[in-house]
Design goal:
By secondary structure, this protein is mostly helical. It has helices at about 1-10, 15-35, 45-60, 70, 85-105, 105-125, 135-140, 145-155, 190-200, 220-225, 245-255; strands at about 230, 280, 285, 290-295, 300-305. The strands form 2 sheets. A 3-stranded antiparallel β-sheet has the order 3-4-5, with no helix packed on it. A two-stranded antiparallel sheet has the order 1-2. α1 (about 1-10) packs antiparallel against α2, α1 packs parallel to α3 (about 45-60) and α5 (about 85-105) crosses α6. The longest helix is centred in the N-terminal third of the chain and has 19 residues, at about 85-105.
Length: about 300
């Protein structure tokens, strides 16, 4: 292991504290951190790596190997030694790499942007999760990868990232809300993920995507998991969830969104004029007077008159 090799060489070298400091900053850190901008080691894994070489470096710098870690990693303005914490360095370098690649518009940058959009679709928030980090994201996102590491690092240090071209997923009517952002805190990680698998399979983002046209109830097909929304987005592939997942889906919808009478607890208001220009595609559209229905067939629209049976 590289850290152990550095430690052994340091112990056998006869260096002054100034020379040891120079070797630490010009050899050890570059060697240990050169790939840290694209790794996502946990805090515990980083500490395991650090503790191998830390006693040797403290001794070479003229300090006891039991020197308090809080002081060793503290900045010099607070009378610390300013040693670099691997987890912190990995996080900051990861953020710089992430922002730099997205802004570069290079081939790698395009791949990173695609990954960011994938992450965003899985999480299902109105805004990009990097712009508004939340503890709920770790409950939702099932994979352990670079994107969730960057998000959790931003959350831990009270930071956020917003890109000038970043867009919000648009609400389609008054009192609309993103399903995943509206879940209560009572649900376990397993329940939240089961609910999200059903959402992804249904290809829906907002309450309006599964609601009736009058905004008062959730459509039966979405409750039962027999309907999948038409969408202009390229959704990640999601196998049909298990029966137990659909039970959780219905339980959460009833608990967080519906009344005992089966109507929406917070009925939706008027639809926005541009509601049909976003990702959700409906099979037909009705005018305000409820006299006509329009249905698109390829590049043409068909018009149907509504006949009253009264």
């Amino acid at each position: 292991m590289k850290a152990k090799k550095f430690a052994n060489r340091l112990l056998s070298a006869n260096l002054t504290s100034a020379e040891a400091s120079l070797a630490y900053h010009t050899m050890f850190l570059p060697g240990m951190l050169y790939s840290s901008g694209i790794t996502w080691l946990s805090r515990q894994q980083c500490e395991t790596i650090q503790k191998i070489a830390r006693p040797a470096w403290l001794n070479a710098l003229g300090f006891n190997r039991h020197f308090p870690q809080a002081v060793a990693y503290a900045p010099r303005k607070w009378a610390g030694l300013a040693l670099a914490h691997h987890y912190h360095e990995q996080g900051f370098r990861g953020v710089f790499t992430f922002v730099g690649q997205v802004k570069s518009n290079s081939e790698v940058g395009k791949i990173v942007t695609i990954g960011m959009e994938y992450f965003r679709m899985i999480v299902g928030f109105e805004a990009c999760p990097f712009a508004n980090p939340s503890s709920m994201v770790s409950k939702i996102y099932e994979e352990k990868d670079w994107f969730i590491f960057i998000h959790d690092f931003l959350l831990a240090f009270g930071m956020s990232i917003e890109f000038p071209t970043q867009s919000y997923m648009r609400k389609k009517c008054v009192r609309d809300c993103a399903l995943m952002e509206s879940l209560s805190d009572v649900w376990s990680r397993a329940e939240v993920r089961a609910f999200n698998r059903c959402r992804m399979y249904s290809r829906v983002w907002f309450v309006s995507d599964i609601a009736s046209g009058d905004g008062r109830r959730i459509l039966h097909g979405f409750m039962r998991g027999t309907t999948r929304a038409e969408s202009s987005l390229s959704w990640p592939h999601q196998h049909r969830p298990s029966d137990s997942d659909w039970q959780v889906w219905r339980k959460i919808l009833k608990r967080d969104f519906m009344t005992e009478a089966g109507t929406l607890r917070r009925s939706l208001g008027a639809w926005y004029d541009d509601a049909n220009r976003h990702h959700r595609v409906w099979p037909g559209y009705m005018n305000n007077k409820k006299t006509k229905i329009w249905r698109q067939q390829q590049d043409q629209w068909e018009t149907f008159s509504i006949i009253s049976l009264n």
